[in-house]
Write a structure and sequence with these properties.
alpha/beta; 9 helices; about 15% strand
Length: about 270
Amino acid sequence: MIPQFFDIHGHLNDVQFDQDRDVVLERMKMRSVGGVVVGTDEKTSREVVEMAEKSPEQIYAAIGIHPIDNRNEKFHESVFAELAQSPRVIAVGECGLDYSRPAEVSDVSLEKKRQRALFEEQIDFAIAHNLPLMLHIRDCDKARADAHRDVLAILTEKKKTAGEALRGDVHFFAQTLEIAREYFALGFTISFTGVITFSREYDEVIREAPLESIMSETDCPYVAPVPYRGKRNEPIYVEEVVKKIAEIRGEDFETVRAQLVANVIRTFNLKV
């Protein structure tokens, strides 16, 4: 059965769900919400695969290494190749570039080199396994957009040989319409969180982006949408994100809801 909503990026393996994870999953089932649980390193990637395999009706997994959660983490291809054998694994990530905390490193140039190498390993892995990417990209300075510019340059170069095999989503998109269009041109989608329910900063992107190129997420347990701000976020709240997208675009809610679900099925090649 096709879910009515999809939260394409969440962290249900987070400790904030340890006391009631089964209840949260049951609420998802009752509200017809599908979800992608996302790994940020080897340990959490194993966790999300196990979770997805135990909840095959509604949960899928993305496996990968976050650029800065643990700067010592390595990408062990054999480990991730084993995890990718699971039919519930539908993406590689969250991976990408994160330049948001330069004060934490002694050599920014060396740190960028490390991140790029880690990112390219995961891009090549995703292409080899015919999986889309789940991208995490954060800038220190939004106006300069250095991380996004570097990601776009890497993807553009990879696209020359990978073609349509290189695809994916820019999770928690927080940049301009100009940059969004550059991702669209490469065949990528962008996704929005509950931030759009209380910030007007992204209205232009939401209005002007092709409906076929956007998706909804929660990034739970973080950034709960209105009217749940200040509470732990959870996947069923993705409905508020979808409502806001429809409102900002001035389009029929049901039309938007159905198209966002279709986008997920297409992008992640889901068998539903």
